[in-house]
Every structure is written in structure tokens, then in C-alpha cells.
Amino acid sequence: MNPQLLLAIPLAPLIAAAIAGLAGRYIGRIGAHTLTIAGVALAFGLSVYMQWLIYSGHAPAYDGPVYTWLVSGGVRMQVGFLVDRLTTLMMCVVTFVSLCVHVYTIGYMRDDPGYTRFFSYIALFTFGMLMLVMANNFMQLFFGWEAVGVVSYLLIGFWYKRPSAIFANLKAFIVNRVGDFGFVIGIAALFSFTHSLSYKAAFAAAPHLAHLTLPVFGGVSALTLICVCLFIGAMGKSAQVPLHVWLPDSMEGPTPISALIHAATMVTAGVYMVARMSPLFEYSSAALSFVLVIGATNALFMGILGVVNNDIKRVVAYSTLSQLGYMVAALGVSDYAGGIFHLMTHACFKALLFLAAGSVIMAMHHEQDMRKMGGLGKYMPITAITCWIGGLSLVAFPFFSGYYSKDAIIEAVGLSQRWGSTYAYWCLLLGAFVTALYTFRLLFMTFHGEERFRRVHAAHDAHGGHDAHGGHDAHGGHDEHAGHGGGIEPRENSLVVTLPLIALAIPSVLLGYFTVGKVLYGNYFGKAIFVLPQHNVLALMARDYHGPFALGLHGFLTVPFALVLAGLFTAWLFVLKRPEWADAAAVKFAWLKRILDQKYYFDWFNERVLARLARGVGLGLWKVGDQGLIDGALVNGTANSVGGFGGVLRRVQSGYLYSYAFWMMIGLAALLGWFLLHA
Questions:
Q1: 31: exposed, middle or buried (C-beta count within 10 Å: 0-12, 13-18, 19+)?
Q2: pLDDT tens-digit series, residues 154-178
Q3: I want to staple 116 with a disulfide (CB 3.0 to 4.6 A). Which of 32, 94, 103, 139 is the partner?
């Protein structure tokens, strides 16, 4: 395998991003989107080619350096690639979803003054993610890790004139720094034991580190501490509780980047990292139990928040939090293949749901409140059908892609004997009902029932008022259709918007069916993922696998499917049949709704307790340390002391002859007195 060809995969979007960003005014809008789409398309084509080479056996997996960046203290810091079946699968997922998002962006951002800048950012984001997944050492992994973090900061705050966007991107940046602190400690600890930054050296040392006890917390395995620290980094990137708080607020960014961040790139980085580090995590059951409990908690409790939210993008964002919990829970029971398989299917249907939500927002003139929608299915048939496909895949309806990956995770957790698996199983099982409830609620409120947008805007027009959501769209520009007589007239969007929806809808239906036998039950990943024999739950599940069609039929007889039907019926009842029941339930259970509206008070605790504590400590250090000790005692105190002493000496150096004669006489008398005294 040619390393120069491998290098072209991340360099293609990087070069396109650099030209679009630096020369955007010269190449124009058409030049910017053409160049970046071509760069990502080239990366996608080469990724598919690499996957074919490795899967077909025409080329072995590649693990080697590309060039040496620097040598310090005998440590070689290199840019190197590890390209195996796990890597190529991730490369194909990242570049395919990114390509769809690039095409979609042409329609979504067509009127935005930052058009070329946005294309530069999303191409640069793709480069950062490719460098992360292709790395064969921790230095390059950390570079890609931080690169996607920095570019996500720029994209979430893309509309930098909006205070809410600036707050959101700062929040994402700070929360991820908390996770990255643990990540750096884990990498540093590995380096201290192995004296190398390569994956190969770390994996070889894993059995030894598992039996090495450190004198902390009453004695803990060195490998457990390392794995927990690495996973804390994943908790930040993959938005696991309690470091999940940045992800819902990241909806302040444009919808295309919501799809890119939440479907296939940044939030999946943590899942990929843990799967790649399976040779480390397999030797620490305590770390895997920690991963399992965190993931299961995320899957259930973050999904519940989607039930009470009315912002269409935020509902999909909470869905992302929940589905990431399923992936992480799979990793916690050593079902790394299941976690990556769900990552792959989720990337397609979640990108589809985000882009469909964006299509609705565009048709509604940048209205995002589902309570002001309804009945859009007949106006936007392509968006409605593709969104339903994404929703059915999300709820794991049999024969859709999400079913083959999600139900397998629930089964794997149920078969596991790891500590915390019983709690995790019930969380994931109840999560199936919650997922169906918020998904069908979104579909019913948006595409079916009463056309509430006409009623809302008619009420505004009747009072001669201005629509609070109209007048200025999400891009900061003026919306000529909003807040005026006639209200909103939604219609299907252009081909550059609907074509990516169709492209993503196809794998959302078929991808699971055609790949489950190979990726999940066929040992597709081979040596790329390491599982100890006693932890291999997939081996137990594979004995009952009789093909994708039989597996799909079996899905109609499972408990999760019954819970999906219960969620469907509940959503239909409370949204379409008896919507007044939802209002009555909100009043009766006001205490519960208050907790959910406050998002379990995580934001309140962070802003009112942690942030105030940090500001208080900083203020105290400034008052006592900076002003009192440094400025007061050291800088100003020293200056005042020197000034005072100089003032005394200045009185001696008066410049008058009689004064000098007087002091000479005093000195002579003192000297004579000293001699006489000692004589």
C-alpha cells in the first residue's frame, strides 16, 4: 500500500480548505464549493478504494510512519498511518457523510455572507477527523483530537454576532478541555511506562500494566487508571454524562455542521478511540464497567429530554446523545464491533434526520419550534418520506439499518456478565420506548395533523404584530416572507437539498441488511479489534444468526419492538388524537417537567456552582495573590521600601559643607569613644 496515496486522503480536503479560506474572494462561491466538494469526493473515492484493497486481500493492513516531525530526548514524534479494516470503515463513513453535507450546504447557506468561510471550515473539519482515525500513534491522535475540537469551536460559533452562538462555542470548548485533561494524563501515563507514543508499544505493554498496581485510591491497576483517563477524554468528545452539556447548545451552529458533528465526526471520535484501544481496555474489567454504566445512563436519561423539547434540531441532538450511549454501552461489554456497526448505521440515519430537519427549517423560513409546524408532509413529500425513513431506522424498526445494529447492542448487554450489565440492560430496554416516543412525536408534530403554522401566523397578522421568529433568519439576514400577511407557504427545497436526503435514505434502509452478516457476525474487523475469549458476547450471538432476513423477521417478536409500538401509540395518542392530554400531563407532573426542562440541573450546577466557584477562586487568587502578595508585598512593597530607605539616605546627602563637617565630627567622636571603651 502506497503511503503517498494514503497521505492524499487527508491532504485533499486540507488543500481545498486552505484555498477556499485564503482565496475565497478570488475564486468566489462557486469556486469554493466546487473545490471543497471535489477534495472531499476524492478522499471518499480513495477511502472506498483502500477498503476494497484491504477487504479483498489485495493489500495487507498498513502500519508505518509517513515522516518524522521531530525528535526530542530520544523520542520520535511521527506522522504515521494505521490503515486496517476498522480505519477504512471509519474513513468511508466520515467522507461519505461529509460529502453529502457539502452538497447540502450549497442550498442551505446560499444567502449567507460567510459562504466560502463555511466551506473552508467543514473541509478542514473533515481533514482533522481523517487524521484522527488514520493515526498509528498518540501524538497524531491528539493532533486530530484537538483539530476537530478547534474547528467545531469555529463552526458552532459561525454566526459570531449572536451572543447565544458565542456562548455555545465557548461552552463546547471549555467542556472538551475538561475531558482532554484526562485524555492527556492517560497518554502521558502510557508514555511514562512504554517510553513510546506508538499504539504498537502501548498494546504490547497492556498485559504487564494490568498487573502493575499504583499506590493511589488504596491501590489501583495502572491500566485501569490509564483507561479511565482515556475514556474521560472520550466522555468530552462523545458527550457522555456529565460532560454532555455542550452538545445540545451546539445547535446554535448552522444545520449542516450539526449533521457533520453529530452524525459521523466529532462525537464518534470517542467511540472510535475506545474501539481502537480495545487491547488496553480488554485487560481492565473495572474500566469497562465504568464505560458501560456511563453509556447506559446516557442512553436512557438523555433520550427522555428529547420527549419534552419542542425545538426540532434539539430533539435530534438529544437523540444523538442517547444513541451515543448505546454505542458506549456496547464498548463496555466488549462488543466493540457492535459499537462501531451502530456508529456506521447511525451516521447515515442521523445525518439524514439533521438534514431533513434543516430542510423543514428552510421551508418554514427558519422556524424551529415544532408547535408552529404540522401538516408539512403534503407540502414537502421528499423531506417527509426521507425523514420517516431516518426515524424508522432510529427506532430500530425491523429491516431498517438501525434495527440490525441497535437491537444487537441490547442483546449483547443482556448476555454480558460484566458488573453493571443488569442496570445497563434495563436502561437500554426502556430507552427503546423513549426513542420511539420522541421520534414519532417529532414526525407527527412536524409532518401530520393540523397546519399550526397557518394558525400561528394568522394570529400574528390579526394583531398586526411581528413574528418573533420571523424578520431575521438564522443567518442574521432579513426574511421577506416572515411576519407579513399570508404567513408561511412551505414548499419542497431544491435538488441540492433533497438529493443528499435521498443519498442518505438509501443506506438508512439497506446498509444494515447487507452488512450485518459481515461486519457484526463475520469477524470483519479481524485483528483490528482485540477481544479476550471470555468477553466475546458476539460469539454467543453468532450461533443464533441465520442471515439478515431471518434476523429481520425475528425483530417483530422481540421485547424492544413491542416497546417501539408502545412508543408509537403513545406519541399518536398524545400528539394527534388527544393533544390536550399532553397539556394536562404537563400540569399534573409539573415537578417532573421542571426537572426535565432544566435538563436535570446540570447546566444550573455548572453555571451557578462550578463557574461561580472558579470565578471565586480566581478572584481570591487575584486579590490575595496578585494584588496582595505580588503587587503589594513584592513589587510595590519592594519599591516602597527602597524609596523609604532612599529618603533617609537623601537627608545625609544634603550637599551642604557644614552638614558634612558635622557628620564627620559625630563619626570621629563615635570612633574615638569605641577605641577608649575597648582600651
A1: middle
A2: 999 999 889 999 999 899 999 999 9
A3: 32
DSSP code of residue 418? S
Q: Nine-digit cell at 54?
A: 484491504
Helices assigned H by DSSP within 364-400: 381-394
Task: Name the one residue in this structure whose C-alpha cell is 461561580.
Answer: 612
C-alpha–C-alpha distance, residues 226 and 330, integer Å:
20
Is 0.90 surpassed by the pTM of this model? no
List b or e across 281-317, with b for residues whose CB sees 16 or more CB atoms inside 10 angstroms.
Answer: bbbbbebbbbbbbbbbbbbbbbbbbbbbbebbbbbbb
Residue 479 has pLDDT above 80, yes or no: no
3-class SS of residue 498: helix
Positive or negative, the CA dihedral 395, 398, 401, 404 is positive
Provide the angle, in degrees to the nearest 10, between the axes of the packed helices 266-276 and 336-363: 180
Q: Which residues contact 649 (CB under 8 A, 6 or more apart)?
A: none
Q: Which amino acid is at 655?
A: G
DSSP secondary structure letters along 77-115: EEEEEEESHHHHHHHHHHHHHHHHHHHHHHHHTTT-TTH
Q: Which of 438, 420, 348 is nearest to 93 (CA)?
A: 348
**pLDDT tens track for 275-292:** 999 999 999 999 999 999
Here the cell at position 318 is 438529544
Rounded to whole angstroms, how far apart are CA atoms 112 and 158? 11
Nearest alpha-carbon partner for 7 in 144, 197, 135, 121: 135
| C-alpha to C-alpha distance for 408 and 480, rounded to whole angstroms | 49
Instruction: Give the C-alpha separation, 494 to 501, whole Å.
Output: 11
Beta bridge partners of 472: 478
46 to each of 133, 258, 583, 629, how far by Cα in Å?
15, 25, 53, 60
**What is each CA distance from 16 to 39, 92, 224, 320, 468, in whole angstroms?**
6, 19, 42, 29, 39
Measure CA 478 to chain center. 31
CB atoms within 10 A of CB 76: 16
Query: Which is more confidently placed, 651 or 220?
Result: 220
